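Residues and backbone
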Amino acid sequence: MAQLSDYLSGTHYKAVVKGNKRITPADTEDIREIHIEVQDKNFHCNVDQSFGVIVKYVGPFGNNVHHRLYTIANSDVTASGFPEITMLVKRCYYVDEFSGEKYEGVASNYLCNRNPGDELLLTGPHSLPYAVPEDKTSNIILIGMGTGIAPFKSFVRHIYKNVKDWQGKIRLFYGATSGLDLLYLNDKEGDLTNYYDQKTFEAFYALSPRPKWADPIAMDKMIEGQAEEIQEMLSKNNTYIYVAGYDKILTQLDNAFSNIIGSKEKWETRKAELKAGKKWAEIIY
């Protein structure tokens, strides 16, 4: 497992914040779309990679920096030739299990508070567990919750823009707590609906069944709603499953796939096969 020193020992890159826009209502969780311009034309971060943000921070154990990895939601090149990256950041907090006190997440709050013109220090690129299969007939099931949609936006865009001639099925399942949360998918520069005319692509969105922001998302029910097709995809050896989102999603997925495939035991066997063949990958936070 990589250590903090491994990330900090490589080349660092300066970046400038170009925009910081809240995409959720004021009385809900703060999720932001942040645009940054990397001040080095040699910085290249692909869809199967992440980058790190270094925050100067005096921690409780004497550490003076905090490092957090992020995936790209979109990438481009500015007119001046510098890399431009779009990232999704959720303002996070955690509660000390002993004292019960609430603390701000270091990197997320730092980034959410940045203004245009502010400088950032980046590391990377670093490897992600997601990779585009070499076989263009492969089927890919993408499952994301919340800001977990970020790596899949660029992943799908890359396949249809750069790989081309994709023949396998790509199915995206995205869980949102509110209809407003889905608005991010309709931005002009990274709209996944651009690929709806692709015969191989289809997306399914699940909303929380109740209006309160913290209510659970019925991701399992949405996936089970496509049981026939998913069962058919899982019967093939060239099917991949990529997951990104909150840790709670894994229990929902195990329940859904167990129901689809026939039993918990059958799903455990099939999931083990996927992992052994490097056809299951996840980013959980």
About this structure: The radius of gyration is 19 Å. The longest helix spans residues 150-163.
